[in-house]
Amino acid sequence: MNNAVRAIVQHAKQNGIKTFLVLEGYKGLHAGNIINSEKIDLDSAISRGGTVIYSSRFPEFKDPQIRKEAKAQLDKLGIDSLVVIGGDGSYQGAQLLHEIGVKTIALPGTIDNDITSSDFTIGYDTALNTIVDGVGKIRDTMNSHNRAAIIEVMGHGSGDLALFSAIATGAELVVTNEFKKTPSEISEVIVDQIKNKGKRSAIVIISEMIFPDLKILQKEVSEKSGISTRAMSLGHLQRGGVPTAFERINASLMGIKAIDELVEGNSGLAIGVLKGKVTSTPILEALALPRENRYALAEKINKINQA
Ligand code: F6P
Hints:
Blueprint: H1 2-14, E1 20-22, H2 25-31, E2 34-36, H3 42-45, H4 64-76, E3 81-86, H5 88-99, E4 103-108, H6 124-145, E5 148-153, H7 160-169, E6 173-175, H8 183-196, E7 202-207, H9 214-225, E8 229-233, H10 245-263, E9 269-274, E10 277-282, H11 283-288, H12 295-306
Parallel strand pairs: 3-4, 4-9, 5-7, 5-8, 6-7
Antiparallel strand pairs: 1-2, 9-10
Helix pairs in contact: 1-10, 2-4, 6-7, 8-9
Bound molecules: 6-O-phosphono-beta-D-fructofuranose.
């Protein structure tokens, strides 16, 4: 996200546009937590994880009065345009600000990869690489101990982190919202891989929010399979870390496009990368686009990894 912020500020500067940074998202916007962009060293921020402009959850932004007050904070400083970086909640907020007269452009910023108007969201590739690294390390210890591991990854309803990390790690099973499996079915795969096929370990990657209690799942699968199994969540470590080069490039290109759109006088647009091209889609359309169903891919990958 820092790369997007830097590109936005630098490209705006080049176009003679004065920039500010809103700290902590919509919460900071409402509170007037807005600083001059020169106050943050964005050049050195591009190799850092997290976000130098901070983030927050602010469901209060759904309230029209709160949004009016947020707009007043912008008006006070003579700010007429806003670039928002976030997931679908942020997109909804951006659309509503656009409707009350703030020129707004949205960039996809979430590790979940669930903004359909872009092939990649900012944060996704870095999180994916973190997961792949983590799963590799867990595989090492499972191989040593002749065990199975059930690894829960983030995604908030989207199975992309689970599915694509399973491809990259050769996980024996991936379970997503589109491709659900019961504890008994998971046990059967583990038994087949370790007892029948003689593997030293079996890795099962699951999307979050499918199994409410990992300890219960671990016990059930261990008992049913008769194989020592550990279940763990990779948790918030997935949301930090040095951004990948791929991510830095896409975030920078999308940031530049955001300013290009504002310079053209456009608003209410979502920037994305689709089939290698940086694109703009009306936010409302972006929010309504259906997500690709990846059931068939999950089924195919599971078969290949279990062969
Ligand atoms: O939307 C990003 C995300 O990391 C999801 O993958 C996850 O479900 C959620 O945020 C976690 O949110 P919080 O940090 O507020 O618990």
